[in-house]
């Protein structure tokens, strides 16, 4: 079929009306207004509108509008060969959808596109003009995105975080600033104090808020546990914030100090060993100081990493209970573990106690493999395990209470001096 014959075919129009709720399209006519205007134009020009397709969707991204994609498919199948629409940007604001339109015109499947002021047919000049107008819409769309990002960055540099303020603060539309929420801010402060000063956990805070206070979100709902952890980890409350990948110092009024915030992060990074974070150290009361004979205690220290996480370290040192000013150095737990492992072969172990502990592990293994996996006793048979190898494994991989239990089977008296372990039988 020649192009002349195709052009002689009557044009069957589909009226396409689209409206997006996004900021950059709020000035466009409503869908009903578009349909009213274009139906009046169709009646005036004597064109046949076969069907009307409505869509409320952004045209920023290619292939994301179901009704529009259906329109293109029905043009390919011959149901329509013309489009009636308010303006070119109702059809496309991206290169992908524009390319689909031009391709249909090149194939002769789409003969005409009519808008309220122009007609585009399958001719080089008119297709070029169509591409110019749709590309202009894309350029405006891209520029608005760049301008929005630039505006957000400028606002951040001025000290005001874009978006909805965290709980405890309110967005003030009149001057585009952030102010303290007088109803929620005092309870937010109390949350941080309870964690830092009273050892409350996140769940303790959750229970306290929901049983002893009337604290709710701005929508009137009870705060969930995950939101409590987000609040306690948010630097916004001491005056800083992040937006994107950058950190900024805010102009809003801080609710807490940086010191209080850091203390909360330390408390929250500690492993829970009971209510309010009771500490459990593996090797206390198992050694004495080689310099003064006092006991050995432990304490934990935390270091903030570049990514914001907190790294926990445990150090052992003399209690100096004899008040003689013992100045023995601190010893890292990781170094002590390797020394314990090295000493295991030289130490005298309580064979009975070790065997009982090992047998518990073996029994638990058999219950799982036979009771859960359904394996036979022959299939789960274990080779003979060396007790000292088992002790080394627990020292490296076990929990603090497991390490302590293993070391309680050591009959020797252990001495820590100048960061080095030795037993009383050593020369």
Radius of gyration: 37 Å
What is the count of DSSP helices, taking H or I runs of 4+ residues? Answer: 14
Strand order of the largest sheet: 2-1-3-4-5
What does the main sheet amount to? 5 strands, mixed
Number of domains: 3
Q: Could you name the CATH homologous superfamily of the largest domain? A: Resolvase, N-terminal catalytic domain
Number of strands: 15
Ends distance:
106 Å
Query: What CATH architecture of the largest domain would you give?
Result: 3-Layer(aba) Sandwich
Mean pLDDT: 79
The topology string of helices and strands comes to HEHEHEHHEEHEEHHHEEHEEEEHHHHEE
Q: Structural class from helices and strands?
A: alpha/beta
- Quote the beta fraction: 15-25%
- What is the CATH first-level class name of the largest domain? Alpha Beta
Poorly predicted regions are 272-278
Overall form? elongated
Describe the structure in your own words.
Mean pLDDT is 79; it is low at 272-278. The protein is built from 14 helices and 15 strands. It folds into three domains: 3-152, Rossmann fold, CATH 3.40.50; 169-269, Putative Large Serine Recombinase, Chain B, Domain 2 (Hect, E3 ligase catalytic domain fold, Alpha-Beta Complex), CATH 3.90.1750; 287-423, no CATH class. The longest helix is centred in the first third of the chain and has 34 residues, at 124-157. Strands 2-1-3-4-5 form a five-stranded mixed β-sheet, sandwiched between helices. Strands 10-14-15 form a three-stranded mixed β-sheet, with helices on one face. The chain is elongated and about 110 Å long. Helix 7 (185-198) crosses helix 10 and helix 8 (202-212) crosses helix 9. The termini are far apart. By secondary structure, it is an alpha/beta fold. Residues 166-274 form the Recombinase domain. This is Recombinase. GO terms for molecular function: DNA binding; DNA strand exchange activity. Residues 12-159 form the Resolvase/invertase-type recombinase catalytic domain.
């Amino acid at each position: 079929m020649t192009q002349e014959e195709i052009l002689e075919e009557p044009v069957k129009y589909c009226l396409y009306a689209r409206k997006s709720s996004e900021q950059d399209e709020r000035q466009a006519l409503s869908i009903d207004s578009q349909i009213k205007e274009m139906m009046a134009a169709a009646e005036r020009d004597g064109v046949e509108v076969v069907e009307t397709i409505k869509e409320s969707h952004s045209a920023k991204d290619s292939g994301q509008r179901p009704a529009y994609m259906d329109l293109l498919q029905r043009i390919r199948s011959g149901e329509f060969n013309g489009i009636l629409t308010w303006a070119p940007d109702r059809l496309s604001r991206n290169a992908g959808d524009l390319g689909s339109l031009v391709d249909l015109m090149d194939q002769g499947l789409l003969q005409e596109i009519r808008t309220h002021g122009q007609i585009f047919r399958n001719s080089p000049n008119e297709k070029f003009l169509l591409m110019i107008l749709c590309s202009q819409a894309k350029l405006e769309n891209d520029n608005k995105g760049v301008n929005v990002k630039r505006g957000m960055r400028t606002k951040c540099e001025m000290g005001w975080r874009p978006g909805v303020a965290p709980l405890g603060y309110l967005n003030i539309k009149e001057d585009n600033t952030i102010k303290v929420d007088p109803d929620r801010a005092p309870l937010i402060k109390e949350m941080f104090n309870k964690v830092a000063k009273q050892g409350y956990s996140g769940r303790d805070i959750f229970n306290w808020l929901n049983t002893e206070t009337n604290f709710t979100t701005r929508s009137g709902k009870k705060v969930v546990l995950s939101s409590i952890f987000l609040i306690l980890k948010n630097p916004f409350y001491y005056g800083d914030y992040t937006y994107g990948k950058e950190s900024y110092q805010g102009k809003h009024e801080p609710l807490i100090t940086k010191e209080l915030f850091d203390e909360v992060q330390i408390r929250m990074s500690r492993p829970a060993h009971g209510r309010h974070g009771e500490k459990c150290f593996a090797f206390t009361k198992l050694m004495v100081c080689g310099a003064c004979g006092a006991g050995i205690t432990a304490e934990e220290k935390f270091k903030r990493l570049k990514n914001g996480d907190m790294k926990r370290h445990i150090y052992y040192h003399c209690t100096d209970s004899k008040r003689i000013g013992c100045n023995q150095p601190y010893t890292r737990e990781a170094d002590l573990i390797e020394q314990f492992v090295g000493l295991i072969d030289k130490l005298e172990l309580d064979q009975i106690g070790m065997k009982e502990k090992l047998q518990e592990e073996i029994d638990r293994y058999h219950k799982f493999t036979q009771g859960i996996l359904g394996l036979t006793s022959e299939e789960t048979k274990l080779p003979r395990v060396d007790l000292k190898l088992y002790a080394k494994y627990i020292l490296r991989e076990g929990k603090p209470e497991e390490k302590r239990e293993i070391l309680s089977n050591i009959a020797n008296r252990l001495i820590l001096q100048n960061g080095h372990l030795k037993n009383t039988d050593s020369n």
